[in-house]
Structure formats: structure tokens, C-alpha cells
Amino acid sequence: VAGENFDQSPIRRTFKSKVLAHYPQNIEWNPFDQDAVNMLCMPKGLSFRTQADNRDPQLHSFIITREDGSRTYGFVLTFYEEVTSKQICTAMQTLYQMHNAEQYSSVCASSSCSMDSLASSVDEGDATSLAKLQRYNSYDIGRDTLYVSKCICLITPLPFMQACKKFLIQLYKAVTSQQPPPLPLESYIHNILYEVPLPPPGRSLKFYGVYEPIICQRPGPNELPLSDYPLREVFELLGLENLVQVFTCVLLEMQILLYSQ
Question: Name one Pfam family in it (predicted).
């Protein structure tokens, strides 16, 4: 378990994650920082879900800034896949049994009752809370399907956010689709790593993803720097008044701290 969150139900806890594979193994000008990438891909750690939870894929990005000021950009698609290991499913059920036993004891202690006289001394409110506990805070290996989070990440020298997003979504669809893609997955990964060049400054580049072509454009020397992030999301997240206030603070050269989950 990552961090001290034992008071939460096992499904709501976070667990330690690790990098399963990365390609290529190393690049001279950009050595792979396994610890940093692992932490930035899953900042909250590994998480579990059941069929009752929302499991829509989520995309986020990060920046690794090195001592010399150089930057590399990461784009991460997080999704959930079914846990096929019976050992892990059994362990999750055991965690729930232990957790519910502790909750059961705390409810019993708060009502000042013994186990022998539980039925007669627990008031109606406690009985209701126990019923809710057993109904909503449970995992049944024979009834529920367990899912675990997984990430695919693309690390690039420039922030081509839209192109990376489209490629990762197409790759995810190829992984989860019942119908296999036209070529093996390794072909698409090899293509984007070794055969798709950076577009020259001021030019656009069109390359093929798994199912559809993808276009990325690089600004010229006299144009504004590449900013491929959608401004609409900024307005939706911050709101108009907050965004105007942040922009005012930027113009006044004030220090700004954005805090987010």
C-alpha cells in the first residue's frame, strides 16, 4: 500500500506502482528516469475499481525539467483492465473482510455493547449504518469484477499534446478491441519511435496512427512557441474571473501557485 490510508476501504486505497516496460531501453540525450516517470504517470499510485465504478480512460501530461533547463514532455493515458489473477482478487476480499471487521468493532464500541448482546443493544441508527457498511463497503470475489489501473505513456521532446493524445487513444482502442488492428502493436510503436521525425520549424507533419492519420504542426522561428493545450479546458477548470485574475498576476510579475488533486 502506498501511504497510510488504511482507514479508507481497500478499493479506495492506493498501492505502489512500477514501470512494466519502456522502449527504447535508453537514449543518450534523454536517459530514462524510471522513478520520475513512474511517479508522474501515477501520482496517486496504483488503484483498483469494480464494475460499479467509473472506469473511463483519463489523459494527463507532465514535464520533466533537468538541471540544464532542458525539458521533456510526457503524455499519459490511464485506463483500467480486468484483474485475472485469482491471488490478487482473493487478497482484495481478505482486505475487505479485515476492514469491515474493524468497522464493525468500532460501531459496536461506539454503542457500548458486547458481541453477545449486539442484536439487542445496537440502536436503529447503528443497525442502519452496519447494513450500509455491508452493502456498499464490500467486495465479493464471486459477484464482483476487479479492475486495476494501467498507463501507457509517450515521452516527447516537444509538447505535441493533441497528436500524442490521438495516438494513445488509438493504441488503447487497439489493445482493448475484440478485432485485432491491421498490423501488430509493435509495428505502430516502432513507427512512432523510429520512423516519425519531428516536423521542421514552420512545417506540419502527417503520420499514420493505428486507425487514422494524425497531424502535428511546429511553429516557425518568428511565431509564438508551441502551445498545443486546449484553452477551453483552462476556462472550464478555472472560470473566467479566476483566469482574468491569474493573467493579471502574470502581468504584474506576482508569484502564482496552482494547487490541484
Answer: DENN
Chain segment 119-144, per-residue pLDDT in tens: 444 455 555 555 555 555 577 888 88
What is the side-by-side strand order in the sheet with 48-50?
Answer: 48-50, 146-156, 71-82, 58-65
* Cis? peptide before 24, omega within 30° of 0: yes
Range of lowest pLDDT (22-31, 45-54, 62-71): 22-31
CB atoms within 10 A of CB 188: 20
Q: What is the amino acid identity at position 110?
A: S
How far, in Å, CA of 138 to CA of 76, rounded? 31
Whole-number Å distance between alpha carbons of 35 and 41:
10
**What CA–CA distances, in Å, run from 31 to 25, 27, 36, 189?**
9, 5, 11, 19
pTM for this one? 0.78
Q: For residue 89, give the 3-state DSSP assignment.
A: helix
Q: Which residue has the cell 521525425?
A: 197
CB 92 within 8 A of CB 10: yes
Q: CA 2 to CA 167: how far, in whole Å?
A: 31
Spatial separation of the C-alpha atoms in residues 115 and 45, rounded to whole Å: 38
